Each structure stands twice: as structure tokens, then as C-alpha cells.
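Design job #97: recover the sequence.
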């Protein structure tokens, strides 16, 4: 009894000596909430209609496709728990896991089939429908003509050019009434069961699994979307399947997301709330960050970038993207390739990247950026392809402009350089404006537009030259090159070159990696010779990021994925 009492007294003494657990204050739990400046109002939250990173960075939080891209840019099982691929690499069988929509109903293969055919439907007019052209019959359906309730292929001439007729002063495609396109039979995506999806491709596509993580190929709830055209406007009908759920949308102000309790992998999601703000002015966003109103932001004001990097409040992340301007090649004088090349060569890209940007960007002397593998192991597509023109080549620029009939800029018509409102874009546009004036004797106006107006002008070719940029949708040169085919959903320049189209089509049908990459290099050479676009620099991703945000992930493809992030 005495021995037992002694042991108790010793234990009490030791607890007292080392300040036992009962007197240690418990650590305050960190609220798992993050506030991020998205920088702009999204044009849409319908995954089939997303066309930019703003909308895409919403889709990725609330939707999930067959796969999800990991932090090495590799597709990993998501709604599909497994898949098999045929020996000819054209048939994929996906097996879906138990997953649920936010309304509690199961995510099924029928939802995927419906979503893909909806994105391809001419009725929806999705600009990104071409991401599903890899599916057998996808392009034929997307380019078909609806007559009544049926779809028909376009009538073409002996050279394969679509025939049109004048209707109300507009050229309208003529349907081939002998060739009906039935999406239920002629498009190669089919739900075999609720948990089994079969996909048949037009030709082997090495990056197809990566594409299944892209918003255009994400599912939508058939039971809801098929009955409500406004499903993505009213949040009460906005049924999703991703790690977070959108609960509030104050237009041009903020969006609020909460952890989705029905998400299949919810145990790995630590954040309970994400708030997206839409502050367009980078300096205002920086002030909000410094006052604790923001935890992270999509942009950093250019003058403040070096200081913020030095303090650890900004990080420069890698990016697979190119900043460029595009010409409206249907308007004079931009229908002349010599004019386009002259304007391209009269720009000092090195000066822009070093004196204005200061974020590790590099001059773009081609379209496809560094960071994409070529055919041989360890090689890079851009390194193999090299440069297609010289930076700041004023002598050649002057010569080309004179050949086009505008010596020293004489007689060159007035035009406008257009961009989405942004201090950084304004600085670059004004620098280029001065370069063209000094080097070529050309005067242009610089004008900014609100994002929605800008996108409308872009789609309707209502511009002379406009800023744009492209971040890869997947890890392959084709993501930059197939944009510029004739009539492409994102080709808003009026540019068309049949030789170029043929090379892109050939690359998509080529299995041998060496031959395929050679074809893509040949296509890029044509594009950079015709110059419907004017590359300026290859992107990096400077972002404001609090030290309290852990496991933050922004892909080189541009999207932010909050699934694995947490506050600490």
C-alpha cells in the first residue's frame, strides 16, 4: 500500500515539475477558410462553355471529371476509379466509382454521355467543343446542321468546301439531307451501364486521359440540366460533383464555396470555405492582401513584384503559356502578312520582359512555349523547334513595311490595340505603341475594354489587333497549334490556311511520336510564317500567397486546385 502511494506521489510530482497536460493551454484551431482574388467576373460557370482561366478556376473547384490532374500535370483517377485501353489505343472503357451530385443522386456514366454530347451539340455552340473532336463522330455532329429535330452533315463541293446559300443576307450552310447525323448512334461515347462508360476515339490520342480532366469533358447532372436551360444561373439548380459547392455569387463582387459533403474524396479536403473576390485592380488587391483581407491573389502589380518576391509574399511559379496579340486578318492592312511580320519584328521583347515585367518571363520567338516534351526522351519541343524570327529586328521590319506599301509608316491607316482592362496589359500595350511609333512611324490608339465586351468583340471580329494569351489545356504542342485551324472555335482572327489544316489533321492521326512531332513543327513553321498572331513572351505565374496557405497548387496549365490546400 505504501509502495503504491509512493508511486502516485512521484507521478504527481513529475506532472507538477513538467507542467502537466492539465495546465498547457490548448492550441487554437486555425480556421480552414481562404480568401483568393480571382481578379474578374467569370463569363460562365457552365463547364461546357468555359473559355478562359477565370471560368476554368471555378469549374475545377465544383466539378470533377473522369480524371483529375496531379501536381506533376499527370491525370489521376477521379470519378473514374479505373480504365482499360485497347491495343490500338482507340477504345477506352472507364469504370466509375461511387460518387454523388450535390443533390444526393449518383454520378453515372449516363451523365458523362449526356454532358459530352451536349458540349458537342451545335445548339449549345460551345467554343471548346473541338476538345471532343477526338471522339469518333464528334466533329461531324458539332458541325452538323439542325433541321427540325434532326441533324444533317453539311453539303460540300468537289474540294470538300462547305456549300452555303444566302438567307437574310447571311451565308448559311446547306444541309446534306441524305446524311443524317444521329448523336445516339454516330458519336463514340456510350454509357454501357450506370458505372461503365465506353469511349471510341477517331484516332489514338496520347493526351486523351489529360483531356478528361478538362472542363469541357466534365459531367453535368442530366436529370437537372436536360430540364433547365438556366441551371448554371440559379444556384439552387447548380448541381455539381467536385470537392467544393458554390453557395453564393454576388456578381462582380465575390463567390463563396464550402466543402462539399457529398464529394467522394471529402476526407482529403481540409478547407471548409473559399471566398473568391473579383478585384480587377492589382494594386487594390495588394493593399487588401497587406491589410489581411486576402490570403492569395492571381496577380501582383508589376512595380511591386520584386519587393513582394523578396519579402516572401509573392512566388513566381512556372507556366505553360504564351502572351501574344492577334490580328484581324480580314481587315486591311492586316490581311497582308508583310504588315503583320513588320509589326512583330519591330518589338523589343527582351526590353518588355526585363524592364516592365521582371517576373522571369522570356521573349517568345515562336508560339509553343518551353516545357513540353518532344519525341525523344529528355528533349523539349521549343528547344528542338528553335526560333522563327529575331527579336527587335527593326531593319527587316522597315523593309517589309515598305514592301507592303507603307515606307516609314507613310499612309498606314489608323488602328486600335485592344486589351482587357489591367495595369500590366496597359503598360505593355503602351510600350509597344511607342516602339511602333519610333521604329516604323506608325501611330495607333490603345484602348481597354471590360472582359464581357472584349470577349464579344473578339468572337465577332470587331477589332484590329487585340491582346490575348493562351495557357495549355494539356501537355502537348497540339494544345497551342490546333487553335488556328480554319473555323476553329478559338480561332477568332479570320485566319485560314489549308496546308496548315492538313498538317494538324495529319498530326492527330499519326501514332509514331517522331513523325507526329515533325508534323507539328512543320505546322508551327507555317503559322509563324503567316503570322496571324504576334507572340511577345512566354508566361510565368507570379502570385500573391500568404505563408499561412499550405499545399497551394497552381498548375503550369494555369488552374488553381484548392482540393488539397489548408491553412496552417
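Job complete. Output follows.
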Amino acid at each position: 500500500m505504501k509502495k503504491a502511494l509512493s508511486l502516485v506521489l512521484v507521478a504527481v510530482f513529475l506532472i507538477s515539475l513538467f507542467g502537466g497536460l492539465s495546465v498547457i493551454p490548448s492550441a487554437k484551431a486555425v480556421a480552414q477558410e481562404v480568401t483568393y482574388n480571382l481578379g474578374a467576373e467569370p463569363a460562365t460557370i457552365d463547364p461546357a462553355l468555359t473559355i478562359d482561366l477565370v471560368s476554368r478556376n471555378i469549374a475545377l473547384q465544383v466539378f470533377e471529371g473522369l480524371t483529375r490532374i496531379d501536381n506533376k500535370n499527370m491525370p489521376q483517377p477521379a470519378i473514374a476509379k479505373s480504365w482499360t485501353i485497347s491495343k490500338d489505343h482507340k477504345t477506352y472503357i472507364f469504370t466509375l466509382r461511387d460518387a454523388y451530385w450535390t443533390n444526393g443522386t449518383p454520378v453515372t456514366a449516363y451523365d458523362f454521355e449526356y454532358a459530352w454530347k451536349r458540349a458537342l451539340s451545335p445548339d449549345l455552340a460551345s467554343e471548346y467543343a473541338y476538345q471532343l473532336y477526338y471522339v469518333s463522330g464528334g466533329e461531324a455532329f458539332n458541325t452538323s446542321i439542325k433541321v427540325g429535330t434532326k441533324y444533317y452533315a453539311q453539303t460540300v463541293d468537289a474540294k470538300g468546301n462547305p456549300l452555303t446559300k444566302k438567307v437574310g443576307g447571311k451565308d448559311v450552310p446547306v444541309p446534306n439531307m441524305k446524311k443524317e447525323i444521329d448523336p445516339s448512334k454516330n458519336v463514340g461515347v456510350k454509357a454501357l451501364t450506370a458505372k461503365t462508360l465506353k469511349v471510341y476515339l477517331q484516332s489514338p490520342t496520347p493526351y486523351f486521359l489529360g483531356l478528361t480532366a478538362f472542363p469541357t469533358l466534365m459531367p453535368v447532372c442530366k436529370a437537372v440540366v436536360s430540364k433547365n436551360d438556366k441551371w448554371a444561373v440559379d444556384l439552387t439548380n447548380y448541381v455539381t460533383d467536385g470537392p467544393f459547392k458554390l453557395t453564393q455569387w454576388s456578381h462582380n463582387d465575390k463567390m463563396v464555396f464550402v466543402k462539399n459533403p457529398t464529394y467522394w474524396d471529402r476526407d482529403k479536403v481540409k478547407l471548409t470555405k473559399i471566398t473568391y473576390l473579383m478585384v480587377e485592380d492589382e494594386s487594390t488587391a495588394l493593399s487588401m492582401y497587406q491589410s489581411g483581407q486576402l490570403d492569395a491573389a492571381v496577380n501582383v502589380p508589376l512595380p511591386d513584384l520584386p519587393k513582394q518576391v523578396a519579402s516572401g509574399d509573392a512566388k513566381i511559379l512556372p507556366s505553360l503559356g504564351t502572351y501574344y496579340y492577334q490580328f484581324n486578318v480580314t481587315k486591311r492592312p492586316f490581311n497582308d502578312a508583310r504588315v503583320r511580320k513588320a509589326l512583330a519584328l519591330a518589338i523589343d521583347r527582351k526590353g518588355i520582359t526585363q524592364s516592365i515585367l521582371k517576373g522571369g518571363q522570356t521573349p517568345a520567338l515562336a508560339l509553343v512555349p518551353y516545357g513540353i516534351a518532344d519525341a525523344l526522351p529528355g528533349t523539349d519541343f521549343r528547344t528542338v523547334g528553335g526560333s522563327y524570327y529575331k527579336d527587335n529586328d527593326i531593319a527587316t521590319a522597315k523593309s517589309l513595311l515598305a514592301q507592303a506599301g507603307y515606307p516609314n509608316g507613310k499612309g498606314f491607316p489608323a488602328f486600335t490595340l485592344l486589351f482587357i482592362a489591367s495595369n500590366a496589359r496597359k503598360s505593355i500595350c503602351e510600350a509597344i505603341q511607342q516602339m511602333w511609333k519610333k521604329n516604323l512611324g506608325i501611330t495607333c490608339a490603345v484602348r481597354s475594354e471590360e472582359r464581357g465586351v472584349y470577349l464579344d468583340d473578339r468572337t465577332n471580329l470587331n477589332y484590329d489587333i487585340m491582346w490575348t494569351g493562351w495557357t495549355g489545356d494539356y501537355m502537348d504542342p497540339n494544345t497551342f497549334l490546333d487553335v488556328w485551324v480554319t473555323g476553329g472555335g478559338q480561332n477568332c482572327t479570320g485566319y485560314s490556311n489549308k496546308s496548315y489544316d492538313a498538317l494538324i489533321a495529319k498530326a492527330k492521326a499519326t501514332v509514331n511520336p517522331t513523325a507526329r512531332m515533325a508534323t507539328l513543327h512543320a505546322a508551327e513553321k507555317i503559322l509563324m510564317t503567316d503570322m496571324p498572331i504576334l507572340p511577345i513572351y512566354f508566361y510565368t505565374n507570379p502570385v500573391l500567397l500568404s505563408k499561412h496557405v499550405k499545399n497551394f497548387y497552381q498548375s503550369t496549365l494555369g488552374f488553381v486546385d484548392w482540393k488539397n490546400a489548408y491553412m496552417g
